[in-house]
Amino acid sequence: TRVMVINGPNLGRLGVREPDVYGSQDLKTLSADCVTWGQRLGLDVEVRQSDDEAEVIGWMHDAVDERTPVVMNPAAFTHYSYGLADAAHMVTDAGLPLMEVHISNPSARESFRKHSVISPVATGTITGMGFFGYKLALESVAYLLRQK
Length: 148
Ligand code: DQA
Prior knowledge:
Rossmann fold, DHquinase_II_CS, DHquinase_II_sf, aromatic amino acid biosynthesis, 41% helix, binds 1,3,4-trihydroxy-5-OXO-cyclohexanecarboxylic acid, single chain, lyase, five-stranded parallel β-sheet, 3-dehydroquinate dehydratase
């Protein structure tokens, strides 16, 4: 099964951006980790990153059309993008797993990070576990697909 792992704005700057919060490893490392974790679960993982809201919304539409489960770190879009929330809702409405992941624990940070517009339409959310959260999210997708 194919799984899209989608990363929102500024996550292409992992390793450089606030390493105390997001760690010192880069997106390339995260991508390779996700592919390896997926392989062990029998999942064909495709990692993407964009700073462009329209592009990320388009990937949600593709996920619906291609019936592809999603692991998504919506990054700052988490907190304000109703457009992305509506698109993410289409994915879960289509019966596809959509796991929301955050590297940090946004609840423990600035107040604007405490609210997610994505969580209400996600299948589940994993926060505060660093890159390991993506592994948990992929395991969750594998679990959810087995339930069907
Ligand atoms: C983030 C948390 C968001 O608040 C922030 O805007 C990000 C990354 C995380 O992975 O912890 O860009 O989604």
